[in-house]
Design brief:
Layout: E1 2-10, H1 15-23, E2 34-42, E3 48-55, H2 58-67, H3 69-76, E4 82-94, E5 104-108, E6 120-124, E7 131-137, E8 147-151, E9 157-158
Antiparallel strand pairs: 1-3, 1-4, 2-3, 2-8, 2-9, 4-6, 5-7, 5-8, 6-7
Length: 162
């Protein structure tokens, strides 16, 4: 499975427009090879948004980028809402488990708990030494020194069930 991590530094006065644009990615639900997309706002940087998209494999993702992405991107008008964007691709080494009832996601390169408690584990496609782990959380009490994301339910897109 492929994970695409998108980090956007959103222009403060454009947060609402960015969020409205992010809701428009719901059209992903019927793209071949698409699994799920989640995202939200950083708890430590008010204007930083994170989006994580999961794909069955690289070919599906590349087909999406070649034939669907630009049309959707233009529709969202999100290019007017952020000052910078960073995209990283990862190969997952553990199946993704979405836990919709959890309001937070912690991202880290290391974690003291066993990997079996992870919601996903992934290796960067251009640097296999860079590992990303994700944990869905109910509260923030026990977690420190990790990228904490408050998930936006309206940004969640799930594969259309047939």
């Amino acid at each position: 499975m492929l994970l695409k991590l998108i980090e956007c530094n959103v222009i403060p006065e454009k947060r609402e427009a960015f969020s409205e644009g992010q809701k428009m990615w719901k059209e992903l639900h019927n793209v071949p090879g698409f699994v799920a997309q989640i995202g939200g706002w950083s708890r430590s940087n008010y204007n930083k948004a994170y989006i994580l998209a999961f794909w069955l494999e690289q070919n599906s993702y590349e087909n999406f980028m070649d034939h669907v992405h630009d049309h959707l991107f233009v529709k969202t008008r999100q290019d007017e809402t952020y000052s910078s964007i960073k995209v990283s691709l990862y190969e997952t080494t553990k199946s993704f488990m979405l836990q919709e009832h959890m309001p937070y996601l912690a991202l880290t390169n290391s974690f003291s708990q066993s990997d079996c408690t992870c919601s996903f584990v992934a290796k960067n496609t251009s640097n296999s030494n860079h590992v990303l782990k994700g944990f869905f959380l109910q509260d923030l009490d026990r977690v420190k020194n990790h990228t904490m994301i408050q998930l936006e339910k309206e940004w969640t897109v799930l594969k259309e069930q047939k």
